[in-house]
Amino acid sequence: MKFRLGNPDKGGFAQAFGNGLLKHGLRQTDKVACDLLVLWGTRRQHEIDAQRQRGGEVIILERGYLGDRYAWTSVSFGGGLNGRGIFKGPLGSPEKWNKYFGHTGIMRPWRSKPDGYALILGQIPGDMSVRGVNLDRFYCQASDAFKGSMKVILRQHPRTTPLKGLQAHNEGLASLQRALEGARLAVTWNSNAGVEAVLAGVPTITMDQGAMAWEVTGHALRMPPTPDRTPWAHALANKQFLISEFESGECWGFITDGGR
Question: Per CATH, is 117-228 categorized as 3.30.1890?
């Protein structure tokens, strides 16, 4: 099997992933025609589409979801972003969660905070995860849905400009964890901040299947459910890897049943 690294990344994760593939006997090529195209992110949609049309496979590398997102990298097949990707391997195994996260207290019990506010988690307009989404309209819809029963706070993404027409309350809430402390519920289109909210025990609403917290959140603008998060947490831990797991080939073995 021949693979091609379609684009570099600043942290060297793609090259480390490629080194792991070499250890499993795959061969690297610079030619466009290849069996496996490895890309960091999904911005090169034309390359993804072309690879699919040729009948080849696509692997997307992206930031991780648990812990230090810059230390962990997610790996999915199919060319989709986050929840729209196809994750492979024994995702139900608790080993990785127990080793790296289970003992840290990262996942808190679901909370009930009747006096809390509805926290709208802002995203970056133009980001690939919200391509084609009118975020301003969504924020206003979410605000209208809850403002009659509780205070509503919009936490703008730190990398966005102030939103016109709906007051953002970032002052004093610069830390996402600080913002979540007073929340009765959280609302997001598909931000990975939804993962942080669920882990913090805040009942959360996500509106797009690309959200990595989709399985344990509500999908309508009303009080969301609080399901068992254990299977979701185990699977999430198994969807991300350290650069050492790339380099050694351990990642490829995990996601392909022993590298076959």
Answer: no
